[in-house]
Every structure is written in structure tokens, then in C-alpha cells.
Write a structure and sequence with these properties.
Mean pLDDT of chain C: 89
Radius of gyration of chain B: 27 Å
Strand order of the largest sheet of chain B: 1-2
Oligomer: heterotrimer
InterPro entries (chain C): ComplexI_Subunit1, NADH_UbQ_OxRdtase_su1/FPO
GO cellular component, one term (chain C): plasma membrane
Number of helices of chain B: 26
Number of domains of chain C: 1
Number of strands of chain C: 1
Strand content of chain B: 5-15%
Shape of chain B: globular
Radius of gyration of chain C: 19 Å
Organism (chain C): Methylococcus capsulatus (strain ATCC 33009 / NCIMB 11132 / Bath)
Order of helices and strands of chain C: HHEHHHHHHHHH
Shape of chain C: globular
Subcellular location (chain C): Membrane
Enzyme class (chain C): oxidoreductase
Structural class of chain B: mainly alpha
Largest sheet of chain B: 2 strands, antiparallel
Largest interface: B-C, 84 and 86 residues
Chains: A mainly alpha, B mainly alpha, C mainly alpha
């Protein structure tokens, strides 16, 4: 179906979906931790925009609340917390080396195609015009995992994890008009708690192995290599 | 009539070979046996180098006659092809040779006619170029061997094209492979040439086995060796796919597809120039013919995933071929690698065609097929041209390495001009012919986007098209490097500074003819497409109706509004703009030009050693795509004895290897060697054991018979 | 009538190209707190150069003086094909977007050869770098073009613009990405900051200037003019494909007037944006160009993917 046949709301959702994937790609190519956090915040903002758009167009007023939660949590609170953390750990100027950058990008593009391939059969069953967004959210999840695989920094891992959560949330908003309020609040709370616990753990890891490189966690193994 | 012409062509090629042989052994008719026996031993460096003058000089008239016969063979092949292209029906016949129960079937249809045209043009060029070029071998190498094997090589290729049963096809195929093996090993005192020839023979035979196995599947299904029976044979999709994959491996190996290409960059540069031109320009196309014949005509029922495989292989070959080409600094090796690239482009077109046909869009498949055939024709022209012109350069400078050349445009103006035409054509620039076929391939890829329902395939096709764009751009860089280093600038060595234009006019006429055809095919693409209609009608039952929907001036492969290209108007507009500019300028105040030394930053004394070298030109590409090659780069400084910090000289070494050797060929050799060692265990050397083997065999045979 | 209009458009394109680069320079000077030369300064420069007798190095061959003509003809021809202020002109059918890329490649091929003709180190350096950058930029550009062509199912620029005008405004993520990719490619291909600096003659950083270092007089004028045409060509392509509104679709005086005003406004704005970007960004190291163009390729690829996933 050509684009002009969609309604404005659907066009906007698709547009934002593309931008969400784009932020995931940018994260994969981002060396600096502070840049990574900014990208994460941007992704959160796009998510909030989607939610608000859904709330306005469908209309589901309760989605305004979840948009508000996203803004406070993912655009302001968690990025600010992470930022404070890396400043305190004196890592905000660190640049992480990118291994096999070209291959990672190729793999990322292939993953996007793969998620499209996986979602395609579902699409034929679904009647929602925004079903294509499903493919995008799956892609965001997979790209988040790819980010965690290819990087060593714990902070990057946390951001990758949160990006996965973003992908799931996007799927929920774009294809099912949002989740029940209770579930949403629960998830938001979980994410917040996770962020706090990660923050505490950073310090512990750092004090015990003097680094935030996840590869160094091998040392904690009790089995001698 | 056309069949008779084709026979005449084969006969002329063979008799040219015989004539050469007879000519050399006029006095002592030691016969071809000695020659063959001597040459067969090429891989074994036993015989001491023959003294100069060992081979009797041939009178010039005789040499001319040999090549005149070769040219006649080309002309009649061309004639047969052109006549048959416009004939209504295929002609077939039987020759009283071959097995008692299986005479040789021959058949000439539009597909073989098209490839006969390609072959004819190549052979004519070789025949015109040859007499002047081969004079340098006089006295040192055997002209008889060269003539004989060139003749049988050409005859073999013609035989492949007219064969209509598996038996004749394989015989002709082997004649082609074996005689070109001798041609590759022609200058046999170089160890590298002997190695190249052996590798070529080895891989050629492995490919031939794959082809024979593929034939076997069809023969089993139809209980016959004749192609006619195969066309009606019913093959299950699984067997069909197996046969196709085997054929793809066999023909792909001959066509030099990556990763089966290892022989090509070794063998093509080793052969004499006109043979290199034939091998690159024609023999690779015979492989394409084989695949087309097998997949479309004999096997039929094309599946779309065959197309996807072919497209993938083609794309990989195109990109890797040109990346390997751009870092070469040997003139002919670079050209050989670029052949891999161009065959990749041909296979991309074929792959797109198969995808479309498998998905049921025949009209779009035709664009892919036409693009592939057009590129076959184009590549045969400009690659032959480049090999011949490169042969002239090597002939005059006695150098293969680009780093020793430079400034040849002033010493060899005609050859340089012709080489420029070939470079522009092969770099895919308008308004020459290379551009048209690449443009058609792009159009075919573009059509895929709108009709194929599978999103993955669609995006693959788009990525393949982007890689094709990359290939074209790197090809332009590659030929800027080749031309810029060899022909432009200042001579880097004495021999290129004292080179002069070739004296034999045939060595200029042959490339000039090819260059003229390049321009013609670039400017009048609709005519070529119209001429290809019978082929598409025969293979796929339809013709590309939209290609000249707006008349001969406009090339519109996918319909008038999809895309159009008017090469004549482009040429006209450029000529007009040029003329206008010159006119305006002649009126201007600055009509003439002042000559002055080049700007040397005020230091004085620009030396040729300050120019960018071939290795330096490719360095940025080499650095950006570093993982593609296996590069060993060392620079060792020599320091003064008194002061170890003072560098007196710096030696730099750069070796660029092919990754496929380590990843594919060496493991394969190891496996083969291991297997051979295992097998060798049955050779114990004890007589009783051998008797036991015979005994066992007898028992088993008796058991089977009863 | 149509052909006449097309001819006028082509001539106007060629004649107005120096004005565009003059305007760009003017804006850039203002942004950098310098006193700008008037926007028509390039015309003065061209006139001066055309009046001078060219000096050709004595090591140069015939290729050297021929190249400026080839380069200029290729550029002028591409200018004639692109819809400037009106669409549906007959010249648009001569060549599509891929042929346009071919024309660029033709000009570049000869310019790179001419760079190597004299036999100095600079020329070879410039040629090598230019061809390397081109081989990275061309796939990105083609991918972006493909994205557009997928939407309009044509590579003919005029038809594609017609399609976009017919379907009206729509939010296409693929277009956003393709625009991004094409902008980066345009910056690289026209030799602007951060890839190359058109104002530099610093030996080791220059690319385009290194190739044409030996040119003077009317030869240099032709090459400079061709460069200006190329710059405006990218500007017109980007402006008319991504913002086609205002282009004249019938050939009445009002429509043509609106078309001319619209393209002037679009190009003016584009030049301001480019000047802003050039002022705020520093030039890159040569071997970071691959990252820049890799990003351009990524953008184009994402454009293609989002077309396939989201828009079909």
C-alpha cells in the first residue's frame, strides 16, 4: 500500500518508527558514553511522542499518562542518573573502541531484514495498518542485543538493555494501543528499580575488579581457567 | 547455408593450425607428435632451454597465410552468426563422426548464432593482430605449436557453440580447454607460466567433471545423449536443482566466478596477447553460453532461487574482482582480474533474469537477459581491445609492470588513443557501450523492486544494485590508475622512454576495429536490442516489446515512463556543446596556448620518480578495504654505519595476495593430499597382495555376473 | 515550443550556476564575519580567466587541453536534463538519474586522467583521492536514488517529480533517510567541507584542487564553471526531488514565473544551510572520509529498508 493511502496518524507512526530504528543504528555506531546516553534519551522522546500521538488519535486518554511517565523516566530521570554516574566514575570522556564496525553495521542491517522476515506472516493475519511497526520494534530489540554483544562497557550494556525495553514498549503502543495502566506502571517501576540497582552495582563492580569492562568479570569465576 | 558457413569456419580454424604446423616442419617432418610430446611435459622442468634458433624461422608469407585462415574462420563464424540471427528456424544436421551409435549432432539456433558473432569478432581481431605480434616469437618459440593450438582452440569453441549432443559438446569443450592449456604454457621457460598452465588445466578439468555430472543427470532422465531428447525430458525439481548447481559450478569455474577464479588471473596474463584476448574476450563467454544453453534451453523450468544464487555469485565476483584488479600493478593481470568483474556483471544480469522468470515476470526477465547478453558482447569487444593494446605496449616496452611505464601516450599515440577508448568503455562511462549494458542491468534490478513480493529478495536486489554502482566506480578508479600510470605522465624507465609506435599496421587495425564497434554499440543500443529479439523469443517465447517503444532514438527497457536513455542525442548534444565552445573561443582573445615547464613549487627539477606510482594510487582503496586482501607490507630502512639514526636508503615491499587461496584452495589441497595418502596405503609393493587384489576382483565380478 | 523551452532552461542553468556559488560564498563570508565579494564575483573571475592565454606544461599530452571541454560538456549536458523550473520537458527523457551519475563519472574520469597527465606528484595525489572518494560515494548515491525510484517506480527524474506532485504531501521516512544520504554524498562529490575545502591550496589536504593545479586561463575557467554547474545540479536535484512544489507543470508565463521564483527560493535557502554547515564543521582527515560516506551509505540503506518494511 503506498504511503499516501495511510491516514496522517499512521504515517506519523511509521515515520517515528523509522526514526526509532535510526537511533538504534546510531547507538551501534556511537563511541562515547555521553553520546550514547543522549541517543537513549532521544529514543525515549520518540517513544513518548508515539504514545502521545496514539493517545490523541485513537483516542485513549490514559495513554497521555504513559507518555508522561516515559518522558519523566526515560527522557529525564534515567539519562540524568546515568549521566551523573559516568561523571562520578569519570568515564564521560571515554571513547569505547568499536570492533569490526563495518561488519556490525552489516549485521544490523541484516537483522532489520530478518525481523521483517519473521514478522511478515503475522502481518498477513493482522488487520492493523500499523502492523509494520511490529517489525521495527522487533528490530529495535535485536539491535539492542547486538549492542550488548559487541560492547564491553557495563554502562553500554545497561543502555542496550533499556533499548530492548523501548522496543517492546513501542510494539505495545503501536500495535495494541497501549497496555493496561497497571501493567504499564509496573514496567515503569521495574525499569526504574533496574536502573537504580545497576547504578549501585556499577560501584560494586568497579570497587571489586577496578574496571567496568564486562570481559573482566570472568575473573570472578571460581573455577580456575 | 549457415551451417555450411559454420563448418567452413571450423575447417578454416583447423587448417590454419595444420598449416602452421606443416610450415614449421617443412624440412624435417618430425610430425606433431614431437611437438605435443615436448609440450605435454610442460609442468615438469626437465628439458634444458632450447638454444636460440632452434625453431626454424617461418617465411613471413606463410605466417600471414596462417592468420589469414584464422581470420577467414572468424569471418565465416560472424557470417553464420549474423545470418542465423535473422533466420526463421534453427538448422540442424548430423556429422558422420563420433561413436557408431551416436553421430555428432549439430544445431545452429539464435543463441549459438549470437555467440558465434561474439566469437567471430574476437577471432577476426586476433587474426588481424597476430601476424605482427607473433614475429617477436620467431626463432625462440615454436610458431607451429602456437598456430596449431590457436586453431584447435578456436575450432573447439566453435564446436561447443554448434554442438547438439552431450558427446560433441564435451569433446569440443575439452579441445578448447586442452589447447588453451598449451597456449597458456606457450612461453614455457618461465616457471610461473608452467604453474599457471597446470593450475588452469587442473581447474578446467574439475569444472569439466562438474559439467559432465550435470549432463549425466539429464541423460539419465531422458536415456539419450542428444540435446533434443533433453529438452522434452522431465526432471524433478530436486534433480533439476542439483543439475543446475553442478552446471553452475562447472561453467562458473570456466567463467572465473569468485571463488572459483584462481586460475584466471594466472592463466590469462601468461598467454600471448592475442590469445589472452581470445580467452578473456571469447572463452569466458562460451561458459556463459553453456550455462544459458543448459539452464534455459535444456533444463528449462527455471526456479527463482537459482537466480538468487547466480545473482549472489555475480555480485560477489563483480565487487571482489574489481577490488583485486585495482591493486594490481601488472598490466595484464589487472586486465584479467577485471574480466572477473565483468563476468560478475553478466551473471548479475542472468541472475536477475532467472529471478524474474522464476517469479513469472517474463517481460522483466527479458531485461535481465538482454542486459547480460549485451554485456557479453561489450566485454568481448573492449576486453579484447584492451588485451591487444596491452600486448602492443608489452611488445614495445618489454615490460609488464606498470611501475616501469609512463608517458606512452607521446611515444605510442595511436595505441594510447585506442586504449583510452577501451578504458572509457570498460569503466562504464557514457556514451560508450559499457555504460549501456550496466545501465540495463540497473534497470533490471530496479524493476525487481516493484514486482517481487518477497521483501528480503527485494532488498537483496537493491543492495546488489548498489554494489554494482560501487563496482562501476572502482572500475573507473582502476582504469584511471592503469591509463594514468602507463600512458600519462613521464616515463619511469628507459625502455618506456624509448618505446615507439608498433610498426605492423595489423596491430593497430585490430584494436581500431574493436574500438569502432565499442562506439557503435554504445550509440545505437536499440539496434542491438532489436537484433537480440530472436534470441529472447527462442529462449523465453517473448520479446522485449517496450525497448524501442519511442523509436530507435530512445532506449526504454521498462516502458517509456520508467526510464529512458538516448545515446545518439547525448553524443549529438556533447558534440554540439563542444563545437559551440570551440567557436566561441576562436573569437576570444586567448586562442593559442603557451607551453611552459610544470609547476614544481619553485624547487626545480621535477623527476619522473616524483610521480604517483600505481601502488600509491591504489593505496587509499587498499587501506579502506584492507580486509579484502592478504597484504604484506614491509619497509626496511638502511642506516648509515656511523650514525644509526641517519637513514640512507629505504626499501619497500608490498605483496598483495588473494584470500581465497588460504580460505579455499589450500585447505582443499590438504584434504586431497590426505586422501591420496590414505589411498596410497593399498599400494604395498608386495606382489602377493596385488595378486590378492586381482583375486578379489575376480570373485566379486563373478558374483555380480552370476 | 517544448524543445525551445528546454533549450532556454538548459542555457539558463549553465549561465546561473556561477551565481549560485557566488551567493553561497557571499553567505559564508557573512557568517564568518568577513566582508563578502558581491554574489556575481564568479562571473568576473570567469571573464578574467577566459581572457587569459592558458599555460600548458610542456610534459602534457593532448589529453590535457581536451579534458576541460569533456568535463564542461558533460556538466552542461547534465544541467540540461534536470528539471530546473519546469517538469515534463522533452530533454528529461534523454537521460535518467543513472545516466546523470554516468555523466558525473565521465567528467571525473577525464579530470583524474588530466591530473596524472603532467606527471607531478600533486596531480596523482588528487586523482587517487578523488577516485577513491567517488567509489565510496557512488553506491551511497545510487542507493538513495533507488529509494526514490522504488517509490515512484521510475528513474526518470521528471516522471518521479510528477509522481510526487500528484500524490501530494506524505510523511515518508525513506525520503528523510534518502535526503540525508544524498546531502552527505553531495557534500563529498562537490568537494565541500568537511571532505575537501574549495578554498584551500594547502598541499597535503587538497583533493580537487590538486588535480587541476596545472590548469590556467580558459581551461581553468571551463573547469571552474563545470564545478559550479555540478554544485548547482546537486542543489537543484535535492530541492526539486524532496520539495517539488512550485515547479511549473504547464508552460504558461505565470506557472513558469512561479517555478523560477520557487527554485530561486529553494536554492537560496539550501545555500544558506550549506554555508551554515560549512562554517560550523571542521575539515576531516582523509581517512575519516570512509566513515562519513559509510554513514551516507547507511542512511541510504535505511531509507531503502524503511521503504520496504514500512511503506509497502
Amino acid at each position: 500500500m503506498p504511503v499516501p493511502a495511510y491516514s496522517v496518524y499512521e504515517q506519523a507512526i511509521l515515520f517515528i518508527a523509522a526514526l526509532v530504528v535510526f537511533t538504534s543504528f546510531l547507538m551501534l555506531g556511537q563511541k562515547r558514553l555521553s553520546g550514547m546516553i543522549h541517543l537513549f534519551a532521544a529514543q525515549g522522546a520518540l517513544l513518548a511522542a508515539t504514545t502521545a500521538l496514539a493517545a490523541y488519535a485513537l483516542p485513549y486518554p490514559h495513554l497521555y499518562v504513559s507518555a508522561l511517565i516515559i518522558v519523566t523516566l526515560k527522557v529525564i530521570l534515567i539519562p540524568a542518573m546515568l549521566h551523573r554516574l559516568i561523571v562520578r566514575l569519570d568515564m564521560h570522556r571515554d571513547a569505547e573502541p568499536l570492533y569490526l564496525y563495518g561488519y556490525v553495521m552489516m549485521a544490523a542491517a541484516a537483522l532489520v531484514m530478518f525481523s521483517y522476515y519473521v514478522v511478515e506472516p503475522i502481518e498477513h493475519l493482522s488487520t492493523l495498518a500499523t502492523r509494520n511497526a511490529m517489525a521495527v520494534s522487533l528490530a529495535v530489540v535485536l539491535l539492542g542485543m547486538l549492542l550488548m554483544i559487541t560492547r564491553r562497557q557495563v554502562v553500554t550494556h545497561v543502555i542496550g538493555f533499556m533499548a530492548i525495553e523501548n522496543g517492546l514498549f513501542f510494539a505495545a503502543v503501536a500495535s495494541t494501543q497501549g497496555m493496561p495502566m497497571v501493567v504499564e506502571l509496573g514496567i515503569a517501576f521495574d525499569v526504574l528499580v533496574a536502573a537504580v540497582i545497576f547504578g549501585v552495582f556499577f560501584f560494586h563492580i568497579r570497587s571489586s575488579i577496578d574496571s567496568l569492562d564486562v570481559d573482566r568479570l570472568n575473573r570472578l569465576s571460581e573455577v580456575e581457567p | 547455408m549457415t551451417l555450411l558457413l559454420a563448418y567452413a569456419s571450423v575447417a578454416a580454424a583447423l587448417s590454419s593450425g595444420l598449416l602452421a604446423l606443416l610450415g614449421e616442419h617443412r624440412a624435417a617432418w618430425t610430425g606433431p607428435a614431437l611437438q605435443v610430446a615436448k609440450l605435454v611435459r610442460i609442468p615438469v622442468p626437465l628439458r634444458p632451454k632450447p638454444a636460440v634458433g632452434h625453431h626454424r624461422r617461418l617465411p613471413h608469407a606463410w605466417r600471414r597465410m596462417v592468420f589469414a585462415l584464422l581470420t577467414a574462420s572468424g569471418v565465416s563464424a560472424l557470417g553464420a552468426g549474423l545470418l542465423q540471427l535473422h533466420a526463421d528456424a534453427a538448422v540442424s544436421g548430423q556429422l558422420p563422426f563420433g561413436l557408431p551409435w551416436l553421430h555428432w549432432h549439430v544445431r545452429l539456433d539464435t543463441l549459438s548464432a549470437f555467440f558465434l558473432v561474439v566469437l567471430g569478432l574476437g577471432v577476426i581481431a586476433a587474426g588481424v593482430y597476430g601476424p605482427g605480434y607473433t614475429r617477436q616469437f620467431a626463432g625462440q618459440y615454436s610458431f607451429g605449436a602456437l598456430g596449431l593450438f590457436t586453431g584447435s582452440f578456436v575450432a573447439g569453441m566453435e564446436g561447443v557453440l554448434i554442438a547438439d549432443d552431450a558427446y560433441l559438446f564435451v569433446i569440443a569443450w575439452e579441445a578448447m580447454t586442452v589447447s588453451s592449456y598449451f597456449l597458456v604454457g606457450y612461453q614455457h621457460e618461465h616457471a610461473s607460466h608452467r604453474r599457471a598452465a597446470f593450475l588452469y588445466l587442473l581447474m578446467g578439468e574439475v569444472g569439466a567433471i562438474a559439467i559432465i555430472l550435470a549432463f549425466g543427470i539429464l541423460a539419465a532422465a531422458s536415456h539419450s545423449f542428444a540435446f533434443d531428447a533433453w529438452r522434452d525430458a522431465h526432471v524433478t525439481p530436486a534433480w533439476g536443482t542439483a543439475a543446475f548447481l553442478l552446471a553452475l559450478a562447472g561453467f562458473g569455474m570456466k567463467a572465473g566466478l569468485v571463488p572459483l577464479h584462481a586460475w584466471l588471473p594466472e592463466a590469462h596474463p601468461a598467454a600471448p596477447a592475442h590469445v589472452s584476448g581470445l580467452m578473456s574476450g571469447v572463452m569466458l563467454k562460451i561458459a556463459v553460453y553453456g550455462l544459458l544453453r543448459f539452464a534455459f534451453d535444456l533444463l528449462g523450468d527455471v526456479q527463482w532461487y537459482w537466480g538468487a544464487i547466480v545473482l549472489g555469485l555475480g555480485t560477489g565476483s563483480a565487487a571482489l574482482g574489481i577490488l583485486y584488479a585495482v591493486v594490481q600493478s601488472d598490466l595484464k593481470r589487472l586486465l584479467a582480474y577485471s574480466s572477473i568483474e565483468n563476468m560478475g556483471i553478466v551473471f548479475m544480469g542472468l541472475g536477475l533474469c532467472m529471478v524474474f522468470i522464476g517469479k513469472g515476470h517474463v517481460q522483466l526477465g527479458l531485461i535481465g537477459l538482454v542486459a547480460a547478453l549485451y554485456h557479453v558482447l561489450n566485454h568481448s569487444l573492449f576486453k579484447n581491445l584492451l588485451f591487444l593494446a596491452a600486448g602492443s605496449v608489452v611488445h614495445q616496452t618489454h615490460r609488464h609492470d606498470l611501475e616501469h611505464m609512463g608517458g606512452l601516450i607521446k611515444r605510442m599515440p595511436v595505441t594510447a588513443g585506442l586504449f583510452l577508448a577501451g578504458s572509457v568503455a570498460i569503466a562504464g562511462l557514457p556514451p560508450l557501450n559499457g555504460f549501456v549494458s550496466e545501465w540495463l542491468t540497473f534497470q533490471a534490478a530496479l524493476q525487481a523492486a516493484s514486482v517481487i513480493d518477497n521483501g528480503i529478495l527485494r532488498s537483496m536486489v537493491s543492495v546488489a544494485a548498489a554494489i554494482l554502482a560501487f563496482t562501476a566506480a572502482v572500475a573507473a578508479a582502476c582504469f584511471v590508475k592503469l591509463y594514468g600510470v602507463a600512458f600519462l605522465g613521464q616515463p619511469r624507465e628507459r625502455r618506456s622512454a624509448h618505446a615507439h609506435e608498433v610498426s605492423h599496421s595489423g596491430m593497430l587495425w585490430a584494436p581500431a576495429m574493436l574500438a569502432g564497434l565499442c562506439l557503435l554499440l554504445g550509440v545505437l543500443p536499440t539496434w542491438v536490442l532489436d537484433a537480440m529479439r530472436p534470441i529472447t523469443r527462442q529462449l523465453l517465447g517473448e520479446t522485449l516489446t517496450s525497448a524501442s517503444a519511442r523509436g530507435w532514438l530512445w532506449l526504454t527497457p521498462g516502458g517509456v515512463s520508467t526510464a529512458s536513455y538516448s545515446a545518439p542525442l547525448v553524443l549529438l548534444a556533447m558534440a554540439l556543446a563542444w563545437w559551440l565552445l570551440r567557436r566561441l573561443e576562436r573569437r576570444g582573445p586567448a586562442a593559442d596556448v603557451r607551453r611552459a615547464p610544470a609547476w614544481d613549487c619553485g624547487f626545480g627539477g621535477l623527476s619522473p620518480r616524483m610521480q604517483y606510482t600505481a601502488a600509491a594510487f591504489a593505496q587509499p582503496v587498499r587501506r579502506i578495504f584492507a580486509p579484502v586482501w592478504e597484504t604484506v607490507e614491509t619497509s626496511t630502512p638502511e642506516t648509515a654505519a656511523a650514525n644509526p639514526l641517519q637513514v640512507t636508503a629505504l626499501s619497500y615491499r608490498l605483496e598483495i595476495g588473494d584470500r581465497s587461496w588460504r580460505w579455499l584452495y589450500l585447505p582443499l589441497t590438504r584434504v586431497v593430499e590426505d586422501l591420496a595418502r590414505q589411498t596410497a596405503r593399498i599400494q604395498t609393493g608386495q606382489v602377493r597382495i596385488y595378486i590378492a587384489y586381482s583375486f578379489m576382483t575376480l570373485i566379486v565380478l563373478l558374483g555380480v555376473v552370476s | 515550443m517544448d524543445w525551445l523551452l528546454a533549450l532556454i532552461q538548459a542555457v539558463l542553468f549553465t549561465l546561473l550556476a556561477p551565481l549560485f556559488s557566488g551567493w553561497l560564498k557571499w553567505v559564508k563570508c557573512l557568517l564568518q564575519n568577513r566582508r563578502p565579494p558581491p554574489p556575481w564575483q564568479p562571473y568576473r573571475d570567469l571573464r578574467k580567466l577566459f581572457g587569459k592565454r592558458p599555460v600548458v606544461a610542456d610534459t602534457a599530452s593532448w589529453l590535457f587541453p581536451v579534458t576541460p571541454y569533456v568535463v564542461f560538456c558533460a556538466a552542461a549536458l547534465s544541467g540540461a536534463i534536470v528539471p530546473f523550473f519546469a517538469v515534463d520537458l522533452p530533454t528529461a527523457a534523454i537521460a535518467d538519474m543513472i545516466v546523470l551519475v554516468g555523466f558525473f563519472a565521465l567528467g571525473r574520469f577525464f579530470l583524474a586522467l588530466a591530473g596524472m597527465d603532467v606527471g607531478t606528484a600533486f596531480g596523482g595525489m588528487g586523482s587517487s583521492r578523488e577516485m577513491t572518494i567517488a567509489s565510496l560515494a557512488e553506491p551511497a548515491m545510487l542507493m538513495a536514488i533507488f529509494t526514490l525510484a522504488l517509490t515512484a517506480s521510475t528513474t526518470n527524474i521528471s516522471v518521479a517529480i510528477d509522481y510526487l506532485l500528484d500524490t501530494g504531501l506524505a510523511l515518508r521516512p525513506s525520503f528523510l533517510f534518502a535526503l540525508g544520504g544524498l546531502l552527505l554524498v553531495a557534500v563529498a562529490e562537490t568537494g565541500r567541507i568537511p571532505i575537501d575545502n574549495p578554498a584551500t591550496h594547502l598541499e597535503l589536504t587538497m583533493i580537487h584542487e590538486a588535480m587541476i593545479l596545472e590548469y590556467s586561463g580558459r581551461h581553468l575557467a571551463l573547469i571552474e564553471w563545470a564545478g559550479q554547474i555540478r554544485l548547482m545540479l546537486y542543489g537543484v536535484l535535492i530541492a526539486n526531488i524532496f520539495l517539488p512544489w512550485g515547479l511549473a507543470r504547464e508552460f504558461t508565463p505565470e506557472a513558469l514565473g512561479i517555478g523560477a521564483a520557487a527554485i530561486a527560493a529553494k536554492l537560496g535557502a539550501l545555500a544558506v544551510a550549506l554555508a551554515l554547515a560549512e562554517t560550523s564543521v571542521a575539515k576531516m582527515r582523509l581517512f575519516r572520509v570512509q566513515e562519513f560516506l559509510g554513514f551516507a551509505y547507511l542512511l541510504s540503506l535505511l531509507g531503502m529498508l524503511s521503504h520496504i518494511i514500512l511503506e509497502v
